[in-house]
Amino acid sequence: MEIPLKGNIKDISLVKILVPLNRNRKTGILSIKTPAFTKKAYINLGDAIFASSTYEDDRLGEMLLKAGKITVEQYDKSVEVLKSTKKRQGAILVELGYLTPKDLFWGVKYQVKEIIQSMFLIEDGEYEFIEGTLPTEEVITLKMSMGNLIYEAVNQIKNWTKIRNEMPDTDSVLKLSDDPHSLFQDIELTAQDKKILALIDAKKTIKAIIDSSWMGSFEALKILYVLWAIGMVEQTAAIQVEAKPGKETEEKKEETVSLNDILQPLSEEEESLMNKVESVYSRLNSLSLTELLDVDEKADSETIKKNYFRLAKEFHPDRYFTFTDPAIKTKLTAVFDAITKAYHTLKDDKLRAEYFKSLTAPKKAEEGDEKVKAEEQFKRGVEEFKKGNFWGAVDNFKWATKMMPKNANYWSYLSLTYSKVPGRLKEAEDALLAAIKLEPFNADFYANLGLIYMKAGLKKRAYSHFQKALKIDSKNVKAMKGLEQTKEQA
Q1: What is the residue-averaged pLDDT of the chain?
Q2: What is the 3-class SS of the chain, one letter each residue?
Q3: How big is the CA angle at 336 (ends 175 and 235), to the nearest 5 degrees?
Q4: Rounded CA separation 117/241 (Å)
């Protein structure tokens, strides 16, 4: 069922809004308005990275005061300076020596998390998700998986009626999710959570699980609600029929992941995993579906599923939160999507047969293949660029230029995307120079190069390239504007 992007939060839980945004890797702003305040969560490729609020108690100073990081006297002094300078309160607190930069970093992340999690407690308010590029690029952002964010927020809910209304009926049967994306999220479950999770066997009803637990009904139901909200468990159609002696039920045959598989942490070092991700990612366009899933053509459905779940856990996008490389999420996501696509093809008898048949079909001309693949990568790059996923777009455009290195347009788009990534102006310059080499009489390329030099603070060099652009096309608007802005520096 498609979730409406606008409505009242009393009609739909925040969980049901955030999970699809996360799974579909949406970018935009989710706001909830009440007569008293407006709170916003900034979503980037499905992850909540920032938040804002008009509620006074959600301001950074108030948050730090309540957290015991500053005193009332320090708070009052920072507000006094804020009114006269209009600087950010966090920067003022650091300048006054009340906070270290490390404390400020913690404080902003704490504020963002608190605002987002407080949105889960709103019971009546108009919500709206507006998709599009985020308006600002915050230096300090929340690095927390959506699963953990929802997990912590839902744990704060103490409204029995709200929980009961959002949960399936107590006669419903719960089972572990079939989706590795939900099963292998980066979530820190408590010992009690794990014990309740162990009771979920696709046979017991919610009521039976609560009755067989060692805790009160509300606490048991709340744990089930949390597990259900984050997607680790889901409602199943009916209680599974017990298998007859000597036979296995279809459900039993498909049990390819155990509770231990889900809860067992991966101990791989960052460098080791990075090398593995890079190795698979760099070969995505050349690996066959069987190579992606590490199976052969004779593998049965159970082996295919087991390998898929193992690889999905290893390359789950949530693993990027612990990494220093900002591009790792894009690569993990691409690998995760590729193995998922391979699984859905190979598990289906018809699709699988069609795939293997296509491997034996006569190959197209190599150059034609490369051209088609390059165009596909280029289109994906444009889509990622529009979403604001510049790292992802860079990778797509790089693939396009590798496959069709004489396409100046691909180099131009690669340059434009690099110019949007902090600290990558040199790469943007190199890509545009490659485009100019291929099309030396393209005025737009020279104008764009001028804009890159302007951004780098090299106004004399920018002025020179705007002049070159106008020599080719005297009516080039970008070059005329750029020339006007830089002529005093020439």
Answers
A1: 84
A2: CCCCCEEECCCCCHHHHHHHHHHCCCCEEEEEECCCCEEEEEEECCEEEEEEECCHHHCHHHHHHHCCCCCHHHHHHHHHHHHHHCCCHHHHHHHCCCCCHHHHHHHHHHHHHHHHHHHCCCCCCEEEEEECCCCCCCCCCCCCCHHHHHHHHHHCCCCHHHHHHHCCCCCCEEEECCCHHHHCCCCCCCHHHHHHHHCCCCCCEHHHHHHHCCCCHHHHHHHHHHHHHCCCEEEECCCCCCCCCCCCCHHHHCCCCCHHHHHCCCCCCHHHHHHHHHHHHHCCCCCCHHHHHCCCCCCCHHHHHHHHHHHHHHCCHHHHHHCCCCCHHHHHHHHHHHHHHHHHHHCCHHHHHHHHHHHHCCCCCHHHHHHHHHHHHHHHHHHHHHHCCHHHHHHHHHHHHHHCCCCHHHHHHHHHHHCCCCCCHHHHHHHHHHHHHHCCCCHHHHHHHHHHHHHCCCHHHHHHHHHHHHHHCCCCHHHHHHHHHHHHHC
A3: 15
A4: 40
Q: For residue 112, count other CB atoms closer than 10 A to its CB.
A: 27
Asked if 154 contacts 225 with a C-beta cutoff of 8 angstroms, the reply is yes
For tokens 């859905």, the residue is 344
CB atoms within 10 A of CB 392: 24
Residues 247-257: tens digit of each pLDDT = 444 444 445 56
The amino acid at 126: E
* % of the chain at pLDDT higher than 70: 89
Q: For residue 123, count other CB atoms closer than 10 A to its CB.
A: 12
Residue 432's CB is within 10 A of a number of other CB atoms, namely 26
Nearest Cα residue to 463 out of 479, 444, 440, 475:
479
Residue with tokens 């990081």: 69
CA 223 – CA 199 distance, rounded (Å): 12
| Token pair listed for 66 | 């309540």
- pTM of this prediction exceeds 0.85: no
Query: Distance between CA atoms of 488 and 482, rounded to whole angstroms?
Result: 11
pLDDT tens for 48-107 read 989 999 999 999 999 999 889 999 999 999 999 998 888 888 889 999 999 998 899 899
Q: How far apart are CA 327 and CA 45, in angstroms?
A: 13
The values of phi and psi at residue 163, to 5°, are: -65, -45
The whole-angstrom separation of Cα 58 and Cα 115 is 7
